[in-house]
Design goal:
Layout: H1 2-39, E1 55-57, H2 66-71, H3 88-98, E2 112-114, H4 119-124, H5 130-142, H6 145-150, E3 155-158, H7 171-174, E4 179-182, H8 188-191, E5 202-203, H9 210-213, E6 230-233, H10 242-253, E7 258-259, H11 273-280, E8 283-289, H12 297-305, E9 308-312, E10 331-332, H13 340-347, H14 351-364, H15 379-388, E11 401-402, E12 408-409
Parallel strand pairs: 1-2, 2-3, 3-4, 4-5, 6-7, 6-8, 8-9, 9-10
Antiparallel strand pairs: 11-12
Length: 426
């Protein structure tokens, strides 16, 4: 009996020692993993294969009206016209998907559908009015049986500007379940409601000028911190916005710390793209306040001149948050505290920490570059990875029903492949 008690106590002590050792080794292993991961380049996972992600891209002559959303009412707008500036993401995403290894030409094999449109560009060039845009979208959607099969859940639309999906006035009726790619996560300042929905939509990077994203031939190169003329800069129009007006006034009070030149967008004193980037690189911190909407292209541009972006937009949404720790590469400061306090704070940050943040930003800025999905790290790689998460095995909508033999039918019990267009819309 005593032998069994002694043995039992020994086992208990041994078990406790084993638990303690396991705990300590686990903590040590976790620490090693953290230390290793913090120094590794930041890249998203990639879609594993085309079997997991198959995207059908609608052709512009496939559906009556779709060409007008790409080329305008007269068909005169070219892709090249729409390629530059913030509108360019509509063109680039479309063109890269046309060449993508994830593209399928078989609608029945597709698990996602891409609806191309350069609608922001055709609107700004006067090739379609707001009313025409709305009517044309409705006409196009009425001719898409696959859109109605899923209620639009597996259809992808790109809206590249601050207006977001509001470019299509009736988006809330027709696209409230569709996947929207947009840099804009908030548009409540004028519209009363945001078109961005966190469970289905994807924030995409803005379209940085092509001359600045070429790693081997960048038009404007960064300069050392010690040679930069000012602590911070704001390069943008005031647009009557409170935060921007405050920065303009702050620059007048502290011209040795904050640069905020008046930007001329036309005339003999217009600031060209190269001159713009040369101005941008002359500060340690690039201030990015909200304008008409919460996002600003300046946030993305700052990474290519290697100044630390300071976000002054409380409602902003940023892309690929599942792989990027934005506290390592940027600063977000309350827009209600724009003033001398902000400059004092920025001045207190050591050059060593600034260099560290710039280094982290240098590792992941490839995610702002629109390139083919064969490139390991690009905006398209990030977008396709996010799209893969949206793939659903089953398609359901208020107009979709199914029978015991697995056939999909409509309200009249007509099988899906016999649906005729145009399909009535809600």
């Amino acid at each position: 009996m005593r032998h069994h008690q002694a043995c039992s106590r020994a086992h208990q002590v041994g078990a406790l020692l084993l638990v303690a050792a396991t705990f300590l080794l686990t903590r040590l292993f976790d620490r090693l993993l953290l230390d290793t991961s913090s120094s590794a380049p930041i890249t998203p996972g990639r879609p594993s294969s085309s079997a997991d992600l198959r995207i059908y891209v609608y052709a512009e002559d496939e559906i009556q009206g779709l060409r007008a959303l790409l080329r305008g009412r007269d068909g005169t707008i070219t892709a090249a016209t729409c390629l530059k500036g913030q509108w360019g993401t509509q063109v680039k995403i479309h063109q890269f998907l046309l060449k993508s290894r994830f593209r399928t030409f078989n609608k029945d094999q597709a698990n996602l559908f891409f609806v191309p449109s350069y609608v922001k560009c055709v609107r700004m060039t006067g090739a379609l009015s707001d009313k025409e845009i709305n009517q044309t979208y409705v006409k196009v959607l009425s001719q898409m049986p696959y859109f109605h099969r899923s209620g639009g859940r597996d259809h992808i639309f790109v809206f590249p500007s601050g207006a977001g999906a509001h470019l299509f006035r009736s988006w809330a009726t027709f696209l409230n379940r569709s996947i929207i790619l947009t840099p804009e996560g908030d548009r409540t300042d004028k519209r009363g409601t945001s078109a961005f929905n966190t469970w289905k939509d994807i924030i995409i990077p803005g379209n940085v000028d092509d001359s600045m994203v070429k790693s081997d031939a960048r038009a404007v190169q960064p300069i050392p911190l010690t040679k930069r003329k000012c602590l911070a800069n704001f390069l943008g129009r005031a647009q009557g916005k409170a935060g921007r007006l405050q920065l303009v006034e702050l620059a007048k009070q502290y011209p040795d710390k904050l640069e905020s030149p008046e930007l001329k967008l036309s005339g003999p004193n217009k600031l060209g793209r190269i001159e713009y980037f040369k101005h941008l690189r002359n500060a340690k911190f690039c201030l990015a306040p909200r304008g008409e909407s919460s996002w600003t292209l300046r946030f993305y541009e700052s990474f290519f001149v290697e100044c630390v972006p300071v976000i002054l937009s409380d409602e902003v949404e940023l892309p690929f948050q599942n792989v990027i720790d934005y506290s390592e590469i940027s600063i977000k400061w309350p827009s209600s505290r724009i003033g001398p306090e902000l400059l004092e704070y920025l001045e207190s940050i050591s050059d060593e920490r600034i260099e560290e943040m710039i280094g982290h930003g240098r590792q992941m800025r490839c995610l702002w570059v629109y390139a083919a999905d064969t490139v390991p790290c690009s905006a398209m790689t990030g977008i396709l990875t996010e799209l893969q998460k949206k793939v659903q095995r089953f398609h359901q909508s208020p107009e979709t029903f199914w029978l015991h033999n697995r056939s999909i039918v409509n309200r009249d019990l007509i099988e899906f492949h016999s649906w005729r267009t145009p399909v009535p819309l809600p």
